Amino acid sequence: MPEDITYNQSIIKYSDGHYIEQTDDIATEFPLTLYVNQQEFATIVCSPTNLHELVLGFLASEGVIFRRADIKDIHIDDSKGFCHIILNREIEQHYGQYTKRMISSCCGKSRQFYFVNDAATSKVSLTDKTVTAAEIFKMMNALQTESTDFKQTGGLHNAAISDGKDFYIHRSDIGRHNALDKLFGYCIEQRIPIRDKVLIFSGRISSEILIKASKIGVGIILSKSAPTDLAIKLASDLNITAVGFIRNESFNIYSHAERIK
């Protein structure tokens, strides 16, 4: 397995009419194939860090597990890029549904899901968590400070989960979903309650990211970038507060503003 989230590559840089030999930090890309109960389940292309957390978060977000105790054994062979998971039960035989596209409504609202498993595992937030403007800026500044690998490579996504005060955990990955799954896996492994936490994200809030947030179980998602229209609709229906364009002491609230005090 690659030893780090980045590696050093010799390059030739063109600048101001000159070619210069130098080195550049490049994001490492690592394929990890998951076998669940001896059946091939999925291959995740990821950054080779916090793989145990990534596997836990991915399986939980896909509805394969609901708690750490659902896993009898987990073994990661990082030299070959394999992860073998044995559950304490049989897995439901619906592999084909994970990528089957669909559009459905729920509770008579405008919620739209494009995959069967998203509709099955997304959750309406029931949190009464609130945050202040000062806490929002504090959490986003912390994410920006921690994003050293992105500053080196320009090829990583950064995410963090926090309570706005004492608790804060940061993860990076080449994949947007992977960064969130690592945070989810950390909370599962450490048995940390998620309902009262806030998700902080470096990129655009797409419908996929919003759905991932709902699977994790947070009620507030913060981003320095913009949301999409479908993400806003989903946030409204799933009772999630979406805040974007957090920069220069300003931000936009797109849904459920009652949680921002």
Q: What is the element layout, followed by pairings?
A:
Layout: E1 6-15, E2 18-27, E3 30-36, E4 39-46, H1 51-61, E5 71-77, E6 82-87, H2 116-121, H3 133-146, H4 148-153, E7 157-162, E8 168-173, H5 176-190, E9 198-201, H6 207-216, E10 220-223, H7 229-237, E11 241-247, E12 250-253
Parallel strand pairs: 3-6, 9-10, 10-11
Antiparallel strand pairs: 1-2, 3-4, 5-6, 7-8, 7-9, 11-12
Helix pairs in contact: 1-5, 5-6, 6-7
Active site: 107
GO molecular function: sulfur carrier activity; sulfurtransferase activity
Protein name: Sulfur carrier protein FdhD
Task: Supply the key terms.
transferase; Ubiquitin-like (UB roll); single chain; cytoplasm; molybdenum cofactor biosynthesis; FdhD; 261 residues; Cytidine Deaminase, domain 2; 2 domains; sulfur carrier activity; alpha/beta
- Average predicted confidence as pLDDT: 86
Question: What top-tier CATH class of the largest domain fits best?
Answer: Alpha Beta
Number of strands: 12
CATH-assigned homologous superfamily of the largest domain: Cytidine Deaminase, domain 2
Tell me the CATH topology of the largest domain. Answer: Cytidine Deaminase, domain 2
N-to-C CA distance: 46 Å
Largest sheet: 6 strands, mixed
Strands in their spatial order, largest beta sheet: 8-7-9-10-11-12
